Amino acid sequence: MKIMIVDDEQDVQFLFRQKFRRELKENQIKLYFAFSAEEALERLQSKLINCPILIVTDINMPGMNGLEMLKIIKDNYPNLKVIIITAYDDEHNYLTAKKYGADDYITKPIEFDKLKEKILKL
Question: Where in this chain does the record put each Response regulatory domain (predicted)?
Answer without folding.
Answer: 2-122
